[in-house]
Request: fold
Amino acid sequence: MTKQLFLVVPVAMWLAACSDAPKAKPVASSARPVAVSVITAATETWPSIYEATGTVRARTSAVISAKLMGYVREVKVQIGDHVREGQLLVTLDPRDLDVSSRRAESAREEVRAGIPEADSAVAAAKANLDLAQVTFGRMQDMYQKKSISNQEFDEASARLKAAQAAHDMARARRTQLDSRLARADQEVRSTEVTRSYAEVLAPFAGVVVARSVEPGILALPGTPMFTIEREGTYWLEASVEESRLSAIRVGQPVSVTLDSLDHTLEARVSEIVPAVDAASRTYIVKIDLPMLTTLRSGVFGRAGFQLGSQSVMAIPVAAVAEHGQLQSVFVDDNGIAHSRLITTGQKVKDRIEVLSGLTAGEKVIYPVPPDLSDGTALTVGSAEVHQ
Reply:
C-alpha cells in the first residue's frame, strides 16, 4: 500500500508541471504578414432612391372568345405559339350557319326570279298608258269640236286615269321587288358574316399565353378561349405608396431591375393610374420598358425612382464577401485583419451602401487578397486606395 502511494505522488507532480507550460501562440501571430491596401469608410452623397415593386405586363393584350355559340371542331394553336394577324385559331361547327346561309340565298333567288315578270308588267302598263294618252288627246280634240258626246269624252278620260293607275301600280310593285332584293342581299351578307364567326382569328401578331379551349366543347359568346399578347411592348406596373406619388410624374426616368435579367434597364414613367387600391393604399404607375425579346408578362421587377439625394456610407462591392445570407468585410485593426459582419443596402454601379457594422474612419481592406483569414497579420501599404 505504501509503494502505491509513492507512485501516485510523482505522477501528480508531473501533470502539475505540464499545466504550467506556456500555451501555443495563434498561428496568425507567427505567420508572415500579408501586404494589403485599405480604404477609409466614409460617407458619400448618393441619390435618394425610392424602390417600388411591380409586375411586367403586356401593353397590348387580348382575351379571345367566340362571337356565337357552337361546338369547337378544331384548335389550331398551343400556349407559347407565335401567331400572325388574321391567323386561324379555332374552327367551330358551321352546319347550323350553313343552313341559315342557304335559306337566305334561296330567298334572294326567289326575289330575283320575280323581277322579269315585274318588268314585263311595267312595260305593259306603260304601253297601255301611252295608248290611253294618245286616245284621250284625240277624243279631247273631237270634244272641243263638238264631234263626240260628253259620255264618250268621260269614258276616254276614265280609261286614261285607269291606265295611269295601272302603270303606277306596276312601278310600285317593281320598286317593292328592289327593296325585297336589297333586304335579301343584306340577309345573305349577314349570314356570311355570321358564318365567318365560325373561324376565330388572331386580332394581331403576338404570342399565345393562355388557352382554355379544347375540341368538342361548346363555345359560348364571351367565354375566354385564348389570351394573346403583342410581343415587344411591355411595361412594369409598379405599386407606389400614396405618400410618394406626389414626387412622381409622367416622363420621369426610372431604373428598372428584373429578376429575369442581369442588368438594369433605363425606362420612363408612361402612365399613372389615378385610382388608389383600397386594400394596399397604393397607386399603379406604369413604366415603359425597352423592346427586348426576352421580356415576358408576369416577371417580378423593381423600379427605382430618384427623389433627391442622401448621405450614405459606401464601400466597393468587391470588398464585401457573401456567406449565404451573411455579408462581411475585413478591417485593419492595428495591423491585424478582422472579419466584420455588415448589413448592406442599395447598390450604385460598383459601390454598395453599408447600413450597419462599420463606422466612419475604419480601415477596410480592399482589394481583398486571396485566402485572407481572420487574425492574419497585415502590412498596410503607404498609400490608401481612394474610391
Remarks:
- The radius of gyration is 48 Å.
